[in-house]
Design goal:
Elements lengths: L1 H6 L1 H27 L5 H11 L4 H25 L1 H6 L6 H8 L1 H22 L1 H19 L7 H14 L8 H24 L1 H6 L5 H5 L1 H22 L20 H24 L6
Helix pairs in contact: 2-4, 3-4, 3-14, 4-7, 4-8, 7-8, 8-9, 9-10, 10-13, 10-14
Length: 287
């Protein structure tokens, strides 16, 4: 091996460069989402794993799957949206330019990481593998189609939220599925607020998100309907009375900056979710 490398030092250099490119492509995707506070499933799944009393080995494996899946789906989103991101003057184009300049490597990386994740999770758990398949399917559908289709953007994010939490529940557990459906409702609510926040830029690029099609006033009403659905689901189907707190966003001023509105919504949802996880951990959970 050493003789081969000595005879062909360019091959080893090319290999190193490819590895560096792959690392940077994936690292940029997750760092960007962490900065934007979008990798919520890392925290959500960790709390689920603790609340369901998984063993240390299972927690380590399922959190590894959660992390790799987060990196992969965010990278797939960036890969598909590279031209849209480059056309947006308000965005930093550094990440998108790097993807465009290494598009063949990026595509090969998506294929290889997806295949490896599917094979390894199938060997570990059919349930976890199902969650990975669902997440990969919905990210392709959402980025290519649903994101630019009124109502389907919200439905897509609901499925997205459920699929990302799926690896953190006991295998095909009815109780676990009931819980992560609430995560789906949360995610759908966030999508409406996010699309309202991005209204002007999305309209500029002729996108057809739900707020653009129905207008911001009706989109606000739709978001409020989601808060009522989340509260009713938590109280009546999960048996958790603290779900009434999910009605608090009904009273948020919709004229404030959407960034502030979004953060307040995160706080309310986070408090309710933490209380459910604590009750589940101690065996007090009502569902």
């Amino acid at each position: 091996m050493e003789e081969t490398n000595a005879l062909d030092p360019g091959a080893e250099q090319a290999k190193e460069n490819t590895l560096k490119v792959c690392y940077k492509l994936l690292a940029d995707a997750i760092i960007d989402r962490l900065k934007r506070r979008e990798a919520n499933s890392l925290i959500t799944n960790f709390m689920l794993l603790l609340a369901f009393h998984f063993g240390i080995a299972d927690i380590a494996i399922r959190m590894a799957v959660t992390f790799v899946l987060n990196v992969l789906v965010y990278f797939i989103n960036d890969f598909i949206d590279v031209d849209i991101d480059l056309a947006n003057p308000e965005k930093d184009h550094t990440k998108a330019l790097y993807i465009r300049d290494h598009k063949r490597t990026a595509f090969a990386l998506i294929v290889c990481v997806s295949a490896a994740l599917l094979i390894l999770t199938l060997l570990y758990s059919q349930s976890v593998c199902f969650g990975v398949i669902l997440a990969l399917l919905i990210i392709f559908l959402y980025t290519d189609y649903f994101k630019n289709m009124a109502y389907f953007d919200i439905i897509g994010c609901f499925v997205w939220g459920v699929s990302m939490a799926w690896p953190a529940i006991p295998d095909f557990s009815p109780q676990g599925i009931k819980l992560i459906l609430l995560i789906g409702i949360f995610t759908a609510s966030f999508e409406i607020v996010q699309c309202i926040k991005d209204y002007e830029s999305d309209k500029q690029y002729d996108l057809k998100t739900t707020p653009i099609v129905i207008g911001i006033p009706k989109a606000i009403l739709l978001a409020r309907a989601m808060y009522v659905i989340a509260a009713a689901y938590t109280v009546f189907l999960l048996g958790e009375i603290q779900g009434v707190l999910l009605l608090l966003p009904l009273f948020f001023n919709a004229n404030q900056k959407m960034d502030s509105y979004w953060m307040k919504l995160r706080v309310v949802y986070g408090i309710v979710w933490i209380t459910i996880m604590v009750r589940l951990f101690f065996g007090w959970y009502g569902g």
